[in-house]
Amino acid sequence: MAHSFAINDDVHHQQQGPQGRTVAKERSVYTIVSCLPIEADGRPRYRIKSKSENVERVVTEEQIRRLD
Fold it and tell me: What's the rounded Cα separation, in Å, for the pair 18 and 11?
């Protein structure tokens, strides 16, 4: 599986709560900082940086969505 997003793409990230439950918080806008190697489970991973806070995260592709 190849990466679907590229560096500098803006995406929505939905926060997750305990046991992967979606948090009822509004989605945040992040920028893709880097595409990480695809791990053994086959899921592409990304390093993303918040546009509104000084926060970076590592996420899997299913945790982010293209901006509408």
Answer: 23
